[in-house]
Design a protein that fits this description.
It is a single chain. This protein has 184 residues and is α+β, with helices and mostly antiparallel strands. The chain has a single domain, classed as Aminopeptidase, CATH 3.40.630.30. It is 30% helix and 32% strand. It is built from six helices and eight strands. The protein has an eight-stranded mixed β-sheet with strand order 1-2-3-4-5-6-8-7, with helices on both faces. A hairpin with a 5-residue loop joins strand 3 and strand 4. Helix 1 packs across helix 3. Bound molecules: coenzyme A. The site of coenzyme A has 22 residues, from strand 5, helix 4 and helix 5.
Length: 184
């Protein structure tokens, strides 16, 4: 993914680099952070592989850096989805960086990028109903809950998970922000 770095009032969003793996390992080895992710906690090798993959052409996530401290607080999932002009967005932050509005702030910047630069038609996000923090972020972004899938994800050893499906259309984004659509 060719991602030009973006800044917000408190954050820098940039591509992940291979050397980010120790910071990534710190939060992705934490069971409380990974509880509602569709993957297990990462060991050192897993964190290295995650950083390596997301530093390359197959990247699906971006690093979020706290500008004031330079710390890597977490990452944003951001990649094309299976439908044309549609991106999926997501968020994972270390516990010490949660509940400070960082996920919402980073996501707002990515929605701007998706709709105003990439020309996306739709951005989608999913989470489990029990993950209140995650769907709160979706709702703060103005995304709509479009679906509640019952027992749709098999997550051994936890069994079957329900899933909420949220989305935001370009027309909703532009109506809400009052920004002019490119080309209009
Ligand atoms: C989901 C996550 C990224 C949210 O990040 P964040 O930076 O704390 O989010 P924000 O501060 O921007 O907003 C979080 C909102 O959820 C609320 N919230 C946070 N934790 C909560 C909790 N445990 N229960 C209920 N609400 C919670 C906050 O109060 C806030 O809403 P408010 O502004 O109306 O008060 C973070 O909790 C996280 O990394 N969790 C672990 C990884 C994960 O589950 N990712 C999502 C997978 S789908």
């Amino acid at each position: 993914m060719n991602f030009p770095p973006r800044t917000t009032s408190r954050l820098l969003l940039r591509s992940i680099s291979p050397g980010d793996w120790p910071a990534i390992h710190r939060y992705m080895s934490d069971p409380s952070v990974m509880a509602w992710l569709p993957r297990d906690v990462l060991d050192v090798a897993g964190a290295r592989a995650f950083a390596e993959k997301n530093a390359g052409e197959q990247a699906e996530a971006l690093a979020v850096i706290v500008a004031a401290s330079g710390e890597l607080a977490g990452h944003m999932v951001f990649h094309p989805w299976i439908v044309t002009r549609t991106h999926e967005i997501g968020w994972v932050f270390g516990t010490q960086h949660q509940r400070q509005g960082y996920a919402t702030e980073a996501a707002r910047s990515l929605l701007t990028y998706a709709f105003e630069i990439l020309g996306c038609h739709r951005v989608i996000a999913t989470c489990q109903p029990e993950n209140v923090a995650s769907w709160r972020v979706m709702e703060k972004l103005g995304m709509r809950r479009e679906g509640h899938f019952r027992a749709c994800l098999h997550r051994p050893p936890h069994g079957w998970w329900d899933e909420y499906f949220y989305a935001l259309l370009a027309e909703e984004y532009f109506a809400d922000t009052g920004c002019l659509r490119p080309g209009s």
